[in-house]
Inverse folding.
């Protein structure tokens, strides 16, 4: 081969390895980037007045006086929308109108009777009222514009009639006027379409603003409040402004997504301006404010993690990891000490080492099975406890899982202590055991601590071993180590695939898994810093 | 004054020596002897926790799986395809699950092994120590991310992306799981392979360069052949990571217990052994046939990984003796 070609190939190879390293780094960024950035939005976001309402109602947190003022302010701004819808409904919801007119007629009759009129007068007025009622009903039932206007016009001529003073009859005229107004602007042929669309808009408004004031409050927390975050509110607004549909188009097999403007659908009606109003004045209705919601890390959550934070998950993770450390640190350090300092290289040690390596290679789900079969179904009943998955069994399972990590890192830490330290101690007359306790162990302690932190981070992230041994997706905060608990890792899994409610709050989904990643990464960073410091201390001089 | 003090000290030391002879009497000797050996034995016992753990794991997995293995034939368990534990009569054919594990592991290895070896060579032979000290923690970071976070990424970010941009019928499929498993196995492969390539003696490199070989030729013709047992061990360890991984495959592989047809179609959903255990165990009654079948799958998984572990140990031990021998 020619030299140039060989050099070229060599350069090409070097470039290829650089490329691969960059690809790995990019993959890491691609994985961490979206999770962490979306996860941050669980804590840092722009909240709305609904969020403040939710905080006061569910977590009794926040300034109630200020909230009261804000509530009034937003309610006033929202009322415009509701009024417009109500007015429009007067024109199209004829069933309700008919009912209303009938009730009104009955009420007027009672009022007349109370007025002490002569018999003749009473019958006369009553007859007119009945006529008004019937004409209105005819108008409501009709689809013909002219007929409606004719009937309404007939009703309205009685407006100035003084005989009706002192009764509620004037309401007939307001109803009639409103109806004629909306009928004038409405295309009656599209009535059913309007009703359907309006229903959709109203549902979306309930999601955006929460239940309408005056209506009984919803049973579940999810339905009690509107959009708590500005991004959520804006996406809902987008849904209100634009209607998305999947339609079949010519020349194309699959359905095509189209967006049509809702305000066009309502063109010419009283509803039309509210779309513009919503678009421009959403801020007035929602009062967005930037929020640093640090309580996310301590708050409990409503079912499905719809509102609230990940407090119980963090507590559960901490409990599990710390308890498993209680089991694994003594075992790991003693094992490492024995393997490095007190044993000779014989067959038993070889077997022990093979077992440690095998233990490190056992898949994590097998630990889960083992924990179920041994700790939950065998050990707990053997000691007279109820045989159910709990924090104790989960942390024991995790401690066996992390034992090899602990042993290996402690061994390395003990081996890294310079031999001169031990020799000096032995020369001063201390025994092997004393040397270990007083000289080697303190010198190796930072290294052992690094191992502890690494095992902590491993334990915090494990999910498979605790699936059957103590983790639950929903449940109360644990009261003792014999209760099962929620954890960050299992919660992340459950929110990603198991929970349909969680799909509606992606910020909480990402927030959970981002907290887990951050916890683990912080632990790892601590370990790395500790390791470099230790390296400097033992070898720096 | 000083002299007097020193004298006093010397006298008291001598007195102490007289009172406590250097030679121990038999009682003290026996005490020390017992303390030493009992201490040693206690330490050994504690150290044997890992041995007991391995034995207990084996015992309990076998104990729970045994009735199933007695009742159904092992051959049928390993060779039939249908996994219908809820059917009447239930069918427990693990072949499709084994195939699922095989699919995702092999595909992951096809992606991860070349990348891992190249990265290992990069770290050991191509860049300076400074770049190495930056890149290494980044790769360790990949290993530190919890598997459930990878699974989360696979099913909420990667799967929709695949479905939208690559036109697959489903985003949760064998390919998705394989790619994520490859990323997860990379750190293991890189670190073990790098260790073994770095362990190759300096003389070999210098001899190769001295003969006029370029860096690429040195790497491919000298270093990788010399370090091959370590690299094989790295690949085996990476495979173990991929086979034993639960959360990612559970969340990203689609969990359809069937063998893809045509066989090369990776865009179909598969179901692995680990995902089956994780997914089904929550729904079974303790002690039922289904429960025992899951333990049987666990046993199969355990035996596979332990065999692979021993194999990797063998290859790793060969690298150590070899490099020692050459020196």
């Amino acid at each position: 081969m020619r030299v140039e070609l060989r050099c070229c190939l060599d350069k090409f190879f070097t470039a290829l390895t650089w490329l691969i390293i960059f690809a790995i780094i990019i993959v890491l960024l691609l994985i961490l980037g979206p999770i962490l950035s979306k996860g941050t939005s669980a804590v840092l976001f722009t909240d709305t007045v609904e969020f403040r309402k939710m905080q006061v109602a569910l977590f009794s947190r926040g300034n109630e006086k200020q909230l009261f003022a804000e509530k009034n302010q937003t309610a006033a701004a929202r009322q415009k929308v509701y009024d417009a819808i109500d007015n429009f409904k007067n024109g199209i919801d004829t069933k309700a109108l008919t009912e209303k007119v009938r009730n009104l007629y009955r009420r007027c009759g009672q009022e007349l009777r109370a007025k002490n009129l002569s018999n003749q007068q009473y019958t006369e007025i009553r007859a007119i009222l009945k006529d008004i009622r019937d004409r209105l009903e005819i108008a409501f039932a009709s689809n013909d514009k002219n007929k409606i206007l004719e009937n309404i016009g007939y009703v309205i001529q009685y407006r100035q009639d003084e005989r009706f003073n002192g009764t509620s009859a004037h309401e007939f005229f307001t109803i009639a006027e409103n109806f004629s107004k909306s009928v004038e602007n409405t295309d009656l042929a599209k009535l059913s379409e309007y009703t359907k669309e309006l229903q959709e808009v109203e549902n979306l408004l309930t999601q955006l603003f929460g239940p309408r004031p005056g209506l009984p409050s919803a049973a579940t927390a999810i339905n009690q409040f509107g959009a708590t975050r500005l991004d959520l509110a804006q996406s809902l607004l987008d849904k209100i402004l634009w209607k998305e549909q999947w339609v079949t188009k010519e020349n194309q097999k699959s359905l095509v997504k189209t967006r049509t403007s809702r305000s066009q659908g309502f063109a010419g009606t009283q509803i039309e301006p509210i779309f513009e109003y919503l678009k421009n004045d959403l801020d007035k209705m929602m009062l967005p404010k930037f929020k640093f919601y640090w309580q996310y890390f301590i708050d409990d959550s409503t079912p499905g993690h719809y509102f609230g934070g990940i407090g119980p998950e963090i507590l559960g993770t901490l409990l599990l990891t710390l308890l498993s450390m209680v089991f694994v640190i003594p075992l790991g350090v003693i094992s490492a000490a024995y393997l490095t300092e007190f044993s000779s290289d014989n067959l038993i040690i070889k077997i022990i080492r093979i077992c440690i390596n095998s233990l490190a290679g056992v898949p994590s789900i097998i630990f889960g099975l083992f924990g179920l079969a041994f700790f939950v179904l065998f050990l707990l009943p053997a000691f007279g406890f109820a045989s159910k998955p709990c924090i104790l069994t989960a942390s024991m399972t995790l401690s066996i899982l992390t034992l090899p990590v602990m042993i290996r890192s402690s061994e390395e830490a003990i081996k890294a202590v310079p031999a001169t330290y031990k020799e000096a101690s032995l020369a001063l007359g201390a025994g092997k055991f004393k040397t270990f306790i007083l000289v080697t162990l303190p010198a190796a302690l930072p290294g052992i601590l690094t191992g502890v932190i690494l095992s902590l981070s491993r334990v915090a992230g494990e999910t498979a071993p605790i699936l059957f041994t103590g983790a639950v997706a929903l449940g109360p905060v644990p009261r003792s180590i014999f209760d099962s608990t929620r954890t960050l890792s299992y919660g992340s899994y459950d929110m990603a695939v198991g929970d349909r409610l969680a799909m509606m709050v992606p910020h909480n989904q990402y927030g959970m898994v981002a907290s887990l990643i951050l916890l683990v990464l912080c632990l790892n960073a601590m370990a790395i810093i500790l390791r470099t410091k230790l390296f400097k201390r033992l070898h720096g001089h | 004054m000083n002299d007097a003090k020193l004298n006093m000290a010397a006298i008291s030391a001598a007195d102490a020596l007289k009172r406590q002879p250097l030679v121990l009497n038999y009682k003290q000797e026996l005490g020390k002897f017992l303390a030493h050996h009992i201490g040693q034995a206690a330490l050994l016992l504690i150290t044997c926790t890992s041995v007991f753990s391995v034995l207990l794991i084996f015992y309990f997995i076998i104990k729970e799986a045994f009735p199933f293995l007695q009742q159904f034939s092992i051959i049928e368990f390993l060779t039939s395809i249908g996994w219908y534990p809820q059917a009447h009569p239930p069918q427990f054919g693990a072949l499709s699950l084994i195939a699922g594990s095989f699919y995702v592991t092999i595909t992951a290895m096809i992606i991860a092994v070349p990348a891992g070896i190249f990265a290992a060579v990069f770290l050991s032979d191509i860049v300076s120590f400074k770049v190495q000290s930056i890149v290494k923690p980044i790769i360790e970071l990949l290993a530190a991310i919890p598997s459930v976070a990878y699974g989360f990424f696979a099913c909420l970010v990667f799967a929709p992306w695949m479905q939208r941009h690559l036109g697959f019928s489903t985003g949760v499929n064998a390919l998705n799981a394989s790619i994520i498993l490859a990323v997860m196995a990379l750190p293991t492969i890189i670190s073990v392979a790098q260790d073994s390539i770095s362990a190759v003696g300096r003389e070999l490199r210098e001899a190769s360069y001295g003969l006029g070989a370029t860096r690429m030729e040195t790497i491919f013709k000298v270093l990788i052949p010399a370090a091959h047992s370590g690299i094989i061990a790295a690949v085996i360890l990476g495979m173990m990571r991929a086979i034993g991984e639960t959360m990612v495959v559970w969340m990203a592989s689609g969990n359809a217990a069937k063998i893809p047809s045509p066989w090369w179609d990776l865009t179909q959903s598969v179901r692995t052994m680990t995902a089956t255990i994780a997914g089904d165990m929550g729904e079974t009654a303790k002690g039922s046939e289904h429960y025992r079948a899951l333990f049987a799958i666990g046993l199969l998984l355990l035996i596979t990984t332990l065999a692979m572990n021993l194999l990797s140990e063998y290859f790793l031990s060969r690298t150590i003796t070899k490099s020692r021998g050459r020196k």
Observations:
- The beta strands of chain B are 83-84, 91-92.
- The first helix of chain B runs from residue 2 to 19.
- The domain at 75-326 of chain B is CATH 1.10.3720.10 (MetI-like fold).
